[in-house]
Predict the structure.
Amino acid sequence: MARSFLTGPRTATLATLRPDDTPHVTPVRFAFDAATGLVRVTTQAGARKARNVAAGGPAARIALCQADGIRWVTLEGRATVTHDPAHLAEAVRRYTERYRTPPHDPPDLVVIEIAVDRALSLNL
C-alpha cells in the first residue's frame, strides 16, 4: 500500500543537515523506485539541500516525508548528489511520469539520490 501512496502526484518534505548540524526542511517533488529503493529529487546545484548533501559526503543521511492527512511515509537513507547525464535523464523521466510534467530545467540541474534503508509509515 505504501508503494501506491508514493506514486501519486504529491509533494513531500526533505530534511537535510546544514554544516552546523541544524536541520533544513524544504518541500520537494520526487520519484521513488521501489525496485531499487532509490529516491530521486531534482534540484539546482546551488540549492541549500544539494549543498547540504554534498557537504555531508558519503555519510550524508537525509529523510523524505510524504503526508496526506493522517497517512504518511518517511523514507530515510544515505544520499549523494550527481550531475551525471544518465542519472539526470532517469530522474527527469521518472519525475515526468509521476507528475505528468517535466521538472524545471536550469543549467545547473542535479539529482539527489537517496538509497533508502529505512521506511516508516502510519495508516497505510
In short: The chain has a mean pLDDT of 94.
